[in-house]
Design goal:
The chain is about 40% helix and about 10% strand. The chain contains eleven helices and five strands. β2, α6 and β3 form a beta-alpha-beta unit.
Length: about 350
């Protein structure tokens, strides 16, 4: 029997409230110290301002190819990174600039890679989706949907084989969650008790299709049930909730109990990529999330409640903007790679 036809326009606004399903919703939220709040604010602001500048440079033609911005999702990588130690690895898909910055990769090197310059992390050859930093334990953005999940599982296998207590974080989205290789990875990870955290960044629309139209099970924290992998739903717009969930998942993995799934419920403010007009949702929906749930505003409001002044917060923002502006200047003036670079770092 043929599946019933659906009206693509019905995507608009239908995800204002997601189905919670019967998954484990993690209500716990850490109380941050003032220093933690300030760290979270700086780190999230750096990602937000960097992505805004990247969008501007793309519009000017200084960045070519694909460019997927992380604006709105900053609390996830910042909160997760706060729970890690040196040696823990991160791998993700192509919405990856925020992950790079959260791992400690310099804004200048990331921006220079976006503009195809020699000073970029992949010497201008990788672009937005293919940057790596062995020093920062960042194993790349990956352009193949879901590919990073199996690779991240492989990183965890290497950790277990070597007998260390390092944890691998494999980030992927709601769209990639339906890929077959994801479930092959789940099976192997649980079978061999691999120390990997699968972080599902559920921003509701994947490349432009609502999860309600693309996924039979919209509670992504339950995707590991048939493999006996525990999972939790987390407010991915609250950096404290992310840190609390990350602490629990990291402890689980370090104790040798195997993999863990964290579904981060989040929202991207921009389209899937810079070429996406995002007509599948309403402007009112986006503005409501910005107004009610913005991860940076949540931290600002808590700091204001702790008697920090608006001027002090503006100064932090100004310092971050200075870093980003310097990165943009470098990325537009650094020389392009020599033609000989085409033959370096190539395996035969």
């Amino acid at each position: 029997m043929a599946a019933p036809k659906k009206n693509p326009a019905s995507d608009k606004g239908q995800d204002k409230q997601q189905d919670k399903g019967n998954g484990s919703k993690n209500p716990s939220t850490l109380e941050f110290t003032r220093d933690q709040e300030l760290q979270a604010l700086r780190d999230m602001l750096l990602i937000r301002r960097f992505e805004e500048k990247a969008g501007q440079l793309y519009g000017m033609g200084a960045i070519g190819g694909f460019c997927h911005l992380y604006i709105g999702q900053e609390a996830i990588v910042v909160g997760m990174q706060m729970a890690l130690k040196r040696g823990d690895q991160v791998i993700t898909g192509y919405r990856d600039h925020g992950h790079m910055l959260a791992c400690g990769m310099e804004a200048k090197g990331v921006m220079a890679e976006l503009t195809g310059r020699h000073g970029g992390y992949s010497k201008g050859k990788g672009g937005s989706m293919h940057m790596f930093s062995k020093e920062k334990y960042f194993y790349g953005g990956h352009g193949i949907v879901g590919a990073q999940v199996s690779l991240g599982t492989g990183l965890a296998f290497a950790n277990r084989y070597r007998g260390n207590d390092n944890v691998s974080l494999a980030y992927f989205g709601d769209g990639a969650s339906n890929q077959g290789q994801v479930y092959e990875s789940f099976n192997m990870a649980e079978l061999w008790k691999l120390p990997v955290i699968y972080v599902i960044e559920n921003n509701r629309y994947a490349m432009g299709t609502s999860v309600k139209r693309s996924s039979a099970q919209t509670d992504f924290s339950r995707r590991g049930i048939s493999f006996n992998i525990p999972g939790e739903q987390v407010d991915g717009m609250d950096v404290r909730a992310v840190k609390a969930a990350a602490d629990k998942a990291v402890a689980w993995c370090r104790a040798g109990k195997g993999p863990y799934i964290l579904e981060m419920q989040t929202y991207r403010y921009r389209g899937h990529s810079m070429s996406d007009p995002a007509k599948y949702r309403t402007r009112e929906e986006v503005e409501k999330v910005r107004h009610d749930q913005d991860p940076i505003e949540q931290v600002r409001n808590r700091l204001l409640a702790q008697k920090m002044t608006e001027q002090e917060l503006k100064q932090i923002d100004a310092e971050v903007r200075e870093i980003v502006n310097a990165a943009a200047d470098f990325a537009q003036t650094d020389p392009e790679p020599d033609a000989s670079e085409l033959w370096t770092d190539v395996y035969r």
